[in-house]
Description:
By secondary structure, the chain is of the alpha+beta class. It folds into two domains: 1-106, Nonspecific Lipid-transfer Protein, Chain A (2-Layer Sandwich), CATH 3.30.1050; 128-231, Nonspecific Lipid-transfer Protein, Chain A (2-Layer Sandwich). The chain has helices at residues 2-16, 58-65, 71-76, 86-89, 92-106, 128-150, 190-197, 203-208, 218-221, 224-235; strands spanning 18-25, 28-34, 40-43, 52-57, 80-84, 152-159, 162-168, 174-177, 184-189, 212-216. A hairpin with a 2-residue loop joins β6 and β7 (162-168). α1 runs antiparallel to α5.
Amino acid sequence: MSKAVDEVGPSLVSKVKGVIKFDITGAGAWLVDLKNGKGSVRVATANDKADLSIILSEENFLKMMENKLNPQQAFMKGLVKIKGNMGLAMKLNVVLAATRNYMKKHGGAAKSAASKPAAAKPAGGLKSTEIFRLLGDVVAKDGAVMAKKVKGIIQFDITGAGKWNLDLKSATPALTEGTKKADVTITVADEDFVAIAMGKLNAQQAFMKGKLKLKGNMALAMKLPVVFNALKPQSKL
């Protein structure tokens, strides 16, 4: 969807004229802005405002993307919950059609949670949303190996940039957006989190300097390098 918006964003903006938030159960939230500028798609944060919020499962989202489930019928069956501008919901087909046309033109199919639309790198460098996008890919691929080393659930509260839950304890390791039960909660600023992930700031030193706050299992926090080292082959940090 993000690439489709990159390609035909202005046209979609003129037709939709609204901001849609997709809250996909167990797979994160995404903001599709077809109201401002040339349009954009990025990971949604708690502070983002949308004209329309759509809540649905990943399975049903993929079915709609593949034109196997009609949005209106899904709503009537209770498979999709809508909050906000109902009139804007009627324009959802415009967005889905543009995405399908892009995939047909360039090849490919709707992808699962492990391959969500990439959040654009903000001007000035890599930010936490991009780090988490890469981390999601790594967990989907090597989560079982990471879980054997970490054996815990880490909650990341990134000041001004959202919250993420990294489950490396359950049978099915996963990274999800939002707040869930965790063994340790790490609160850190966006830029400091990125610096730690890129190896430019030592997590222990950040804690000693008050740049990073910990709540819960302190020993688990010492395993952060396992998480960030797994990112290096992926992001070439």
